Amino acid sequence: MTTKKLVIVSSGLSTPSSTRQLADRLVSDAAGLLGERGIEVEVKVFELRDLAHDITNHLLLGFAPPKLQAALDAVAAADGLIAVTPIFTTSYAGLFKSFIDVIDPDALTDLPVLIGATGGTPRHSLAIDYAIRPLFTYLHAIPVTTGVFAATGDWGDGGDGVRSLPDRIFRGAKEFADLVERTDRSDRVSDPFSLDRPMGHLLGGLAGE
């Protein structure tokens, strides 16, 4: 049986978190669809709030503590990434962006990505397409066409005539599952001795950031 590795990155700050709830719904549908096709799924979930200090230390010092390194390694080895962030001040959370900043620049190449976002009102939904999607495209990942935004009101019955949240989750998960199924990243080789930041920076900022 074929096995696919899925990584979930959730940058919600509260407990419980609607951001994590959306991530769980997305991976549940995606894993179910892959399972129906005879594909076994291994899932790893990383809550960025638990890694916040490690991410900051990495940005300052250029080295990842073990817990953060485990998350970075998991992303680099993944067959698919589900990335979900709350929207603050019209864009992704700072913690979310900081995590992306410490990922090896080549780690996301050809990686299928399902984007999710949460916010108080539907007016923030465009952030998926003007902020988050370009970020992953710049890093040569493959974000699926449907990004899933969940406003506070979307967790109700969806009876307002707009496509309901469960429908949007399923549509995004199906596009993601289709891409994960046909994407092969098994030949990726990571160089453990490569530097993801300029040597001058590691020596104290001798080169530009």
Automatic annotation (TrEMBL):
Keyword terms: Flavoprotein, FMN, Oxidoreductase
Domain of life: Bacteria
Enzyme class: oxidoreductase
InterPro entries recorded: CE1759_FMN_reduct, Flavoprotein-like_sf, FMN_Rdtase-like_dom, NAD(P)H-dep_FMN_reductase
GO molecular function, one term: oxidoreductase activity
Keyword S-adenosyl-L-methionine in annotation: no
Domain NADPH-dependent FMN reductase-like: 5-155
EC number in record: 1.-.-.-
Entry annotated with the keyword DNA repair: no
This protein's name: CE1759 family FMN reductase
Species this protein is from: Agromyces aurantiacus
Species lineage: Bacteria, Bacillati, Actinomycetota, Actinomycetes, Micrococcales
